[in-house]
Amino acid sequence: MGETTPAVPELILGGLPTLVAAVTVIWALARRRAAAHRRLARPTAACALLSLMTTVAVTPHTGAYLKLVEAGLLLPLIAAVARWSPLRELRIAVPLAALAVAAWPAPLVNGSFLERTGVASFWLLPALAAAAIGGYPRHVEQRRRTAVTAARRAQRLQLSRDLHDFVAHDVSGIVVQAQAARFLAPTDPGQAVLALERIEKAGLNALEAMDRTMHMLDDDQELASTSHRPPGIAQLPTLIDDFTALSGTETRLHLPPSAAEAFTLAAPEAGALAYRIVAEALTNIHRHAPRTPRAEVRFSPSPTGMELRVTNEPPDTPSSHPRRPTALRRRGGRGLVALTDDVRARGGTLTAGPHGEGGWCLTAILPLSTSPTKEPKKRPKEPKLPKEPK
The domain that contains 362 carries what CATH number? Predict the structure, then answer.
């Protein structure tokens, strides 16, 4: 006859993991703060190791009901660890606890290795379900944090691009005119006064651009989309005139009526992007070629949309023309890089490089998507009245 009544030491040893798991669960329930739950990985791993040791050490049928209770207590611990614990500790505690839950009935099976493996696989399913129950909210929260981080980064990038494209252009003009006023004040006070007027205008434009950018971050999207729209094709003549007055570079705009009509029919974002490209190109002329005598902005239809070319001639030598004050020199920023990304996002291309003998050329191909328009509602036909008898 086999031994049917377990010895007291073996019974105590078999019940020790159950007691430790019960204490851990009670402690976790008493500590409702998330900071306490993040410290559950190590106690859970200790419970799992005790469970595995007793599963191997004690004889079969020694406290089998206690092992079942122990497995039931490990399941909520697995869910809590999968939900709250750090990843480094989670990767150790959860597999150990799952193995302990799967292995507890193996000594009770008097069969082949394959049968024991099947029983262990069956009991592994609740452990995997507990890990999934705890890990799903963690995954959802992580996705939410990633989405919020990406949205904030996109918002910061958009803010920096708007400040660079619009404000930097006006600030460069202010610097040029301030240097010109200082240069002309001793000999021609009248021109210095005109330069101060242009500085005032450029400063007001910069404040308007900053105000528009701030409204883009406002919660009132309707206000931002109606009264603070970014400039587009219609504002290009003013931009060209201001640039010519500020820099002294003769700048010509070639905008055929067909091209202007195409931008009018396209989405508003296309015209705003074209304005930003021209503003960036003129700002770079301010910084890198302040003595260039002529520049040209040309729009022409292309098979894939609209081609925009901004070219400038090589700067004059100091001996051919009087020396003009130069704009503030800075290291190259990310203006063209950001614009290239925006153009590519719309399915177009943007390239910049040397042109002719010492000149520079920026070329952009802008696909023009049609702006959605509402079809006019057809008026219902009025019912015909019966003719009066004669």
Answer: 3.30.565.10
Q: Report the chain's terminal Cα–Cα distance, integer Å.
A: 123
- pTM of the full structure: 0.53
Alpha carbon distance 180, 195 (integer Å): 7
Phi, psi for residue 257 in degrees, rounded to 5: -60, -35
CA–chain centroid gap for 61, Å, is 59
Joined together, the tokens standing for residue 321 give 């023309």
DSSP state of 321: S
Q: Is residue 145 included in any domain, yes or no?
A: no
Q: Which domain holds residue 353?
A: 233-317+334-370
148, 149, 168, 367, 382 from 155: Cα distances, Å: 10, 10, 19, 24, 52
**Is residue 140 assigned to a domain?**
no
pLDDT tens track for 253-303: 999 999 989 998 888 888 888 988 998 888 888 778 878 889 999 999 988
CB 298 within 8 A of CB 340: no
Parallel, antiparallel, or unpaired: how do β-strands 250-254 and 294-302 relate? parallel
Position 217, amino acid: L
Structural domains in the chain (count): 2
Residue 48 falls within a domain, yes or no?
yes
Q: How confident is the model at residue 376 (pLDDT cuts 50, 70, 90)?
A: very low
Q: Which helix (H) or strand (E) holds 48?
A: helix 41-57
Angstrom distance (rounded) from CA 182 to CA 232:
33
d(CA 365, CA 299): 10
Which helix (H) or strand (E) segment is 308 a member of? strand 305-312
Residues contacting residue 175 through CB under 8 Å, at least 6 positions apart: 327, 328
| Chosen domain end from 108, 136, 165 | 108
Q: Work out whether the CA dihedral 190, 193, 197, 203 comes out positive or negative.
A: positive
- Rounded Cα–Cα distance for residues 253 and 242 (Å): 12
Report the percent of the chain where pLDDT is more than 70.
Answer: 75
Residue 71 in domain: yes
